[in-house]
Amino acid sequence: MADSLEHPKDQPLDTPQAAADGARVGPEQVGQTYLPGTAKVFQSKPTDLVAFGFQNPPINGTGDAPAQAHGASANPSDKVLGKVHSPASAAEIKQFAATHEVSVTQKDGQYQFSLKADGKIQYIGAADSLAGGEKLLHDRMIAKENELHKTYGADFSAEKDPPGKQLASGRDTNAPLRYRDPTLAELAAVQSSLERIRPTRDNKEGELGPKFSFLKDAYDRDIPKAARFVLGHDGRAQVYFDPGWNKDRPPTELDLSSRNQQSMQRAIDHELGHNSLATMHGARNDPKDARDNGKAIDKIYSDLGWKVVGGRYMIEGRDNSFYTPEGTDQQRYFVRHDASGRPADGQGRATTEQNAERIQTLQMRIRSKVEQISEYFPGPDEMYAEGYSAFTSGDKSRQDLKYLAPKLYDVVKEADQNQLNQKYPPFDGHTPRVIRALDGKIVPNTQANATKISDFEKRPNKSGEIPFNTLPIQ
Asked: Residue 441: in which H helix or E strand, if any?
């Protein structure tokens, strides 16, 4: 793995930032706009602009246009003037938009770039060529990274990072693990997550913020995942993103077009939910804190319906049986056991492992004592992380959690408030100083803020949707 970056890349922390007012490209646009995610022309994404017939621009974070945060207002300095190039083809523009996760519009001989994030169109700038656009986007990316480092202590992988070692079934290999720069869309997702969760730097100056590594190779070639959390030996949260992790995912919850989508922000919130567990009660986050967080986590897992049976965590069913998750993320199933941990048949009676009842994920959700918010619960930690991301990502996902998994909602809310109380000591020893608002942000525990949450939690469920474990056992 690449060494953690103690300082941002290429530019000092005091790089001037432009106001992010999200100016919209107006209706007078001419030429077609190419959005990220439109039909791809090439079979694979090129790693650079050689595929477009251009030379790669210098990657040094400097140039004709000053580096600014994305979302800057349109002004003449937003234009990057490069060498004269032949006009790019429609196929090249589509590929550029897909690779960089931006919208590209041709107007007045220029290529104008914008990004949809946080529910609005954010204008990035314009260039005379796609090569100039590449440089423009890189400058904006560097500026945004510097901003997130200065505010949250966050660091990011870079194309130039030396490769680490890829894993295979959790073991080191000799295969390289290569890194890349993030896109502006990915940085918008990181910012949205950190604005609410703020996993570090809230109570101690100099505490390391999270490190986000975007990969060209699967972190573990035998066990591909979208993303994964690793707690460093220094207590630093590290999140690794496999190639294609952001496929069909808009940057933030405000950008979702349907309930069937998941945003990049929500996926990051999930990984930081693992950080919430790992740093519970300060253990393993502060070398001077010798407290063990094992008991706190055991209680959370128990409250989620997971018990240690026969030396292994099993999820408890309403039928008084216990189930172990088996298989892979792509083909998950659950095996039934009795109260002693012995394999059990369809009537709950002890039997051989070969004859034990096996049920699918949906059946397990119906049988579970505690509801899940999604189909992804191969262990208690993942079930918690899914609930945590729903709780913190915004009012819509929090409402789904409250209606579809009320017990999980209560467990996550209590654990989250306990952790907030550790960072922000209560006024009188028990009255919270801060609480988590419905949009996921941390706010003062005023009467008005507390009433909003109370009213939300009392709201009747008129959605027509009910928890799966209220259905008859199948």
From this structure: none
pLDDT number for residue 84: 55
Question: What is the distance between the alpha carbons of residues 329 and 361, in angstroms, rounded to a whole number?
Answer: 11
The 3-state DSSP class for residue 459 equals coil
Residue 231 lies in a domain: yes
Low-confidence ranges of the chain (pLDDT < 50): 1-31, 37-77, 82, 203, 282-287
- Number of domain units in the chain: 1
Residue 211, domain extent:
156-249+263-282
Segment 246-291, tens digit of pLDDT: 999 999 999 999 888 899 999 999 999 999 988 876 444 444 555 5
CATH number at residue 278: 3.40.390
In the beta sheet, which residues pair with residue 107?
110
Flag whether 217 is in a domain: yes
Is position 72 within any domain?
A: no
Phi-psi category of residue 437: left, alpha or beta, with phi > 0 → left and psi -120 to 50 → alpha? beta
Tokens of residue 207, six digits = 């505490």
How do residues 178-235 score in pLDDT, each as one tens digit?
A: 999 999 999 999 999 999 987 655 545 567 889 999 999 999 999 999 999 998 888 7
Distance between CA 280 and CA 417 in Å, rounded?
A: 11
**Residue 339 is which amino acid?**
A
Asked if residue 62 belongs to a domain, the reply is: no
Let me know if 25 is exposed, middle or buried by CB neighbors in 10 A (0-12, 13-18, 19+). Answer: middle
**Residue 262 one-letter amino acid:** Q
Angle formed by the axes of helices 264-278 and 380-392, nearest 10°: 120
Task: List Cβ neighbours of 455 (8 Å cut-off, separation of 6 or more).
Answer: none
Give residue 204's identity as a one-letter amino acid code.
Answer: K
- CA 381 to chain CA centroid, Å, is 16
Helices 395-404 and 447-458: crossing angle in degrees, nearest 10, is: 50
| DSSP-H helix ranges across 223-379 | 264-278, 294-303, 361-367
- CB–CB of 398/373 below 8 Å? no
